[in-house]
Amino acid sequence: MRHQTQYIGFTSLVAAAILLFATSCKKDGYALPTPSAKLQNQAIKRTLGPNIVGQPIEFAYAMAILKGKLTSCTAAASIAGAAGTYMENRSFYTAQNGADVGVTVGSPAVTKGTTTTVTYSVDTNAATLRYYYVIPEAARGKTVTITFTATSSDGESISTVMGPYTIAKMDMELNMKVSDGNMMYISIGDSTVYNATDAAAHAGSVDLVYLYRNLTTSAFNHALVAPAADPQYLPGVSLPAGVNRTAKLLKTFNLQDHNLAPTEQYGGIFIDDVDFQQIDLSNSPNFTINLKQGAGVWVETADGKYRAYIYFNAVTTTGTATISMKRYPLK
Amino acid sequence: MKRNITIALTILLAATGWVACKKTTPVDSNGLLITTRRECSVSSFELLGTDYVSVRVGAAVIDTIAQTVKVTVAFGTDLKNLYPQFSLTQDCLLDPGITGMTDFSNLANPRKWTVVSGDRQIRKAYSVVITVQPR
Questions:
Q1: Which of A156, A285, A306, B97 has the largest CB neighbor count within 10 A?
Q2: What confidence tier does A5 reach under pLDDT thresholds 50, 70, 90?
Q3: Using CA atoms, how far apart are residues B107 and A321, in angstroms rounded to an integer?
Q4: What per-residue confidence (pLDDT) applies to A17?
Q5: For residue B49, which residues of chain A lie inside 8 Å, CB to CB?
Q6: Closest CA of chain A from B57, distance in Å
Q7: Is a pLDDT exceeding 90 seen at residue B122?
Q8: Local structure of A9: helix, strand or coil
Q9: Mean pLDDT throughout A188-200?
């Protein structure tokens, strides 16, 4: 009886193992896909980050047909692109060394109004063309869509719509040179830097004073100070007549916006409209001192018209610095 | 057979009783463990600016008798937006907890935090006294 029980248990175990293997080795019902004979297309957006007026948005548009050849490729924007908008007439592939290699497949792009067209000049049934849409001023704060269309020799056409993409309200000014004692008066509203003479002429729009002090008693170094700040933060500065505005300033470090600092190793961050909308500067002072390369300052102007982010790209020990700015209009 | 069943039942009952009578671990309203420790002090202190970089000039001076933390901060520090960080002796907690930037601009009235011991029976109020480095 005992032997019989053991035998039944062993048999059951073997049967279960066989069943398990048989189930796990079952083939999936896979068949090689059959390519469609129709005209095919696909588009990707290659550009990352916010869409800023004056900056390009890059697309790659791929099109292919099994029989026949490609005849034209068109990109139609909902708002006409600014000067510099174009489509490559070369199709790119990636070489073994990783480099993009272009092969001319059509005539140079022709842009009429909102539409950019490349007409194929070679017999090809597959190509990937790149389209660079330079964001126009007219699109600021609006949305843009791009419709890509490919046509083939048999009269077929196919389209892909990309977007809608929201165009940022903010703008930016890169690599402004500031220097203590000379170009030291910064206007957010005018997006520029003035010397004392020009600052006096634009006194109502000067928001910040750049200065550098190498003190032995405290770490002052590079500073951005509102003209109306306590004079202890403006040592040795004689403000031009009428330069007396205040501002709200918030100091940061290592907020390396990729648009403002594209070469920074960790600059994978993008400041967008929403960051300006949400930041709270109500409790901030009107001075920031001891700023270094990589430092940044959030600013709100006294009249509440603008918020800005000023990034220190480079500084020297002789009282000069290179700064870049993103600016968002609040009103 | 009957004897075996009796032994098995006895063992089972004993095991159940042992598990059921095991003490539960006490926790406070924040879910933190209440222990038997009675030490109650600040062991180190840090103060960060809005850029999350230390604004201290020199080390903070902690007096566990006077229950004060004295810190000198750099000239030009934004006193309304500072982020304090306390290190406490084991199992202690800070009341109120630190939730973000804190206003230290009223230098005449130093801000206070209470350190609570691990057994939650001892409470010591520490004052954080800020001095601004001259220019």
A1: A285
A2: low
A3: 34
A4: 62
A5: 251
A6: 9
A7: yes
A8: helix
A9: 97
Residue A112 has pLDDT above 60, yes or no: yes
pLDDT at B102: 96
Question: Looking at the complex, does the CB of residue A232 fall below 8 Å from at least one CB of chain B?
Answer: yes
**Angle, CA A282 vertex, CA A280 and CA A287 arms, to 5°:** 105
d(CA B90, CA B125): 17
> Is ipTM strictly over 0.85?
no
Contact call for A284 and B51, based on CB within 8 A: no
- CATH 2.60.40.3550 in chain A is located at 40-166
Nearest beta carbon to residue A289 from set B50, B76, B103: B76
> Tens digits of per-residue pLDDT, A215-234?
999 999 999 999 999 999 99
Question: Where does the pLDDT of residue B44 fall: very low under 50, low under 70, confident under 90, or very high at 90 and above?
Answer: very high
H helices of A163-263, in order, are 196-201
Residue pLDDT, tens place only, B85-99: 999 999 999 999 999
Residue A155 CB-half CA count within 13 A: 0
Per-residue tokens: A125: 């049934």
Q: Which amino acid is at A215?
A: L
Burial A121-137 (b: 16+ CB within 10 A, else e): eeebeebbbbbbbebbe
B80 touches chain A (CB under 8 A): yes
Partner residue facing A251 (CB), from B51, B134, B135? B51
Please, are residues A314 and A293 in contact by the beta-carbon 8 Å criterion? yes
* Residue labelled with tokens 């290190």: B87
What fold does the segment set A40-166 form as a domain? Immunoglobulin-like (2.60.40)
AA identity, residue B29: S
CATH domain B26-132 topology: Immunoglobulin-like (2.60.40)
